[in-house]
Amino acid sequence: MKQKSRLSIGISAGLLAAASVTLFAQSAPAADPAEVVVASYGGSFQDAQTKAFFEPYAKATGVKVTGTTGSGYAKVKAMEEGGNISWDVVSAESSAHANEVKDGLLEPLDYSIIKADGIPAEFRTKYGVGYIKFGMNLAWSKDKFPKGLTPAQFFDPSVKARRAVTLEPEYTLEFALLADGVKPAALYPLDVDRALKVIGRVKDQIVAFKGAADTQALIQQGEVDVAFVPNGRVNNAIKAGANWAYGWDDSVSDTEWWVVMKGAPHVQEAMKFINYAVQPAQQAELTRQIPYGPTNVDALKLLDPAVAKDLPSYPDNAKLGAVLDAKWWNENRDSVKSRWNSYIMQ
Q1: What separation in angstroms does the CA of 286 have from each of 2, 7, 69, 99, 291?
Q2: Greater confidence, 46 or 308?
Q3: Does residue 30 lie within any of the structural domains?
Q4: Which DSSP string do the residues of 171-194 spell out, in sequence order?
Q5: Are the C-beta atoms of residues 313 and 133 closer than 8 Å to each other?
Q6: What local confidence, expressed as pLDDT, does residue 32 receive?
């Protein structure tokens, strides 16, 4: 930096140096505060995550936690391929997690930072830690169906109703096969042709292929009569005043995973956030906010035993449905997704 001519030539070199250091210290920008960006799905689930994870973590650590929406394998892959990575932590369903691992889109987790001893080993993997179990359930309007509805009736064209199913093929294909009489033990490999034929019986009555947040909104707005939807979403819709009910027959349960994007802007903060979010107190708080089951066994000790009856892991619920096979979807998703996209657009 050139010195201005008005500076006295009598100022010593030492004073100039000191002045230069002081000037730099005053003009240098302050270091950015620690930050972590977490991608999820929006709606009541992300509201629950905000209360259980985002806000208390920010308060406890001073780290800025930015929650965003749009989580999904396609978005993660597009970010990685485009080299424009703005997310750190992602909440991923099992099939998305499996495909992200297959395509090399994730950072290995640092288990020297993430202390997850209370989580069973099958949920502590190199590239992800499973943190909740959720169910996909048949739900119905009690005004439209005061006596309830069976899975077989959902696919019966004589049972007139405005139906909503998932935007993605996962879960709905399984539900169709289970409702058509396939036993959970014989569900995989999926008979996609048969599943599409079952759905085809009522396709003209399906008014929405939507994600979970949108389906919950349709329920609360009275725009659908029956839906295949996450148990926590319909439960929160009921709390918000929807006169709905749901059951566990032919439900499909799955695990949600915390993962870190490869090349994430804040990798170390991502690991610290995940460590916080998998602790028993935080997992128990998420379940209080929305009835998804914690994977940390110590979290169950912090919950009212009555809460367990609304969880997919409760034995009486689990025995009525099936568990999504992430390995099968990892191996078959591309071809099934292509068929599904064409099918729902026809």
Answers
A1: 59, 63, 18, 26, 8
A2: 46
A3: no
A4: THHHHHHHHTT--GGG--S--HHH
A5: yes
A6: 53
15: in domain: no
Stretch (H or E) spanning 196: helix 192-200
CA gap 266, 180 in Å, rounded: 47
Confidence class of residue 11 from pLDDT cuts 50, 70 and 90?
very low
Give the residue from 35, 36, 53, 34 showing the smallest Cα distance to 256: 53
Residues belonging to the chain:
346
Would you call 260 helix, strand, or coil by DSSP? Answer: strand
Residue among 144, 149, 143 at smallest CA distance from 250: 149
Tally the domains of the chain.
2
Residues 6+ apart with CB under 8 A from 234: 137, 139, 216, 219, 227, 242, 244, 246
Q: Which residues of 158-175 are buried (b: 16+ CB within 10 A; e: fewer)?
A: ebebbbbbbbbbbbbbbb
Same domain, 91 and 238: no
0.85 cut: is pTM over it? no
Q: Are residues 45 and 127 in the same domain?
A: yes
Same-domain check for residues 330 and 210:
yes
Q: What is the tens place of the pLDDT at every residue in 219-247?
A: 999 999 999 999 999 999 999 999 999 99
Local confidence band at 306 (pLDDT 50, 70, 90 cut-offs)? confident
Distance CA(187)–CA(34), nearest Å, equals 46
Residue labelled with tokens 């460590």: 275
Ramachandran angles phi, psi of 71, nearest 5°: -55, 135
Helix axes 326-345, 94-102, angle to 10 degrees: 100
Q: Which domain holds residue 246?
A: 134-253+323-345
Which region holds residue 62: left if phi is over 0, alpha if psi is between -120 and 50, else beta?
A: left
Residue 13 Ramachandran class (φ > 0 left, ψ -120 to 50 alpha, else beta): alpha
